[in-house]
Amino acid sequence: MKKSIGIKITILVFFLIWIITHLPSPLFSQNTVPDSMRNNPKINSPVAAANTLIHTYVSDSWNILIAPTRMQKKHLAPLAGMVVIGGILYHYDSDIMEAFNRSYANGIYKNIMHTGEIMEPMGQIERMNPYFIGGYLVGYVGKWPKLQTASLQIMESLTIASGYKQLIRELVGRARPSEHKGARFFKFSEGESFPSGHTSNAFQVATILSYHVDRLPFTILSYGIATTVGLKRIDVNLHWASDVFAGAVYGTAVANMLLHLHKRYELSILPYYDANYQQHMVKTIYAFN
After folding, report:
1. Domain-located, residue 45
2. pLDDT band at 255 (very low <50, low <70, confident <90, very high)
3. What is the pLDDT of residue 30?
4. In the sheet that 279-288 helps form, which strands lie side by side, from edge to edge?
5. Mean pLDDT calculated for residue range 46-74
6. Average confidence score pLDDT of the chain
């Protein structure tokens, strides 16, 4: 069974790689190195490239953390809507869980949960990162900057969101349904139910891939798959419905904020030249607007 699931995941990942690498990218392009860059040791330095990536990660992490303080009036209505929906789900968490348990024999329910079970690794960073690292390497070897960009953005988003998610869990301390303490049990640093990490990760992947592919059928498919991952977390009594909803909103928000931050600069995949103008490698250059 596990081998079959692994094969299906591998086929899906390579299918996504094919889609990303065969569609035009809206923001990123492969360029040649201007003459002014070839003689600039600050730019043509592997150490400088690594420093740039680290600086970008730290900067993005900070900007995502303080994003709520920069909200505009146009964001208030959607936020209020999310809060209302989350509140309703929270009120009926126990009833929803009972409804899930009663639906176990339903054919449609079984198919949805089976899909969620197959795609559940999509919500596990430790299992998916090898694919994203592989995607980056394939993009590097094949000179597909779009694939490199998507892979890096997914890994960055997952890493940033994971740290803040753990902090939220510590502060909220909500017990999982499987602990049989009820939907209203909260105790600082003693619960890991809120928000759902698997759901958050799945929606981050769906958001970033959908952004780069930019095709409605693919967007519907990717978010649909992410939704089945979240529903499966309810089915196995690891999260309440409000946990899953919060994870979906949180993951989508972090990924979108990261994409928005990256719109401030153009990410180019450029050849790296040594002092003798010999090309040795490909590196990333961030050009801030």
Report:
1. no
2. very high
3. 35
4. 29-30, 265-273, 279-288
5. 79
6. 79
- The separation between CA 57 and the C-alpha centre of its own chain, rounded to angstroms, equals 15
Whole-angstrom distance, CA of residue 151 vs CA of residue 129:
9
Structure tokens at 227: 């939704």
d(CA 88, CA 58): 36
Q: List, for residues 204-231, the tens digit of each pLDDT value.
A: 999 999 999 889 999 999 999 999 999 9
**Within a domain: 42:** no
CA 48/CA 42 separation, integer angstroms: 6
Whether residue 178 has pLDDT greater than 90: yes
Q: Domain holding 94: CATH number?
A: 1.20.144
DSSP annotation string for 77-103: HHHHHHHHHHHHHHHTHHHHHHHHHHT
- Residue 198 half-sphere exposure toward CB, CA atoms < 13 A: 24
212 found inside a domain: yes
Residue 184 is given by DSSP the state T
Does residue 64 register a pLDDT over 60?
Answer: yes
139 has a pLDDT exceeding 70 = yes
**Does residue 116 sit within a domain?**
yes
Question: Within the chain, what is the greatest distance between any pair of CA atoms?
Answer: 71
Block residue for tokens 């809507």:
81
What domain count does the chain have?
A: 1
pTM of the predicted structure, to 2 decimals = 0.76
> CB–CB of 190/240 below 8 Å?
no
Q: Which structural domain range is residue 229 located in?
A: 2-32+54-288
What is the three-class DSSP state of 238? coil
pLDDT higher than threshold 60 for residue 99: yes
166's tokens: 């753990």
Tokens of 119: 């795609």
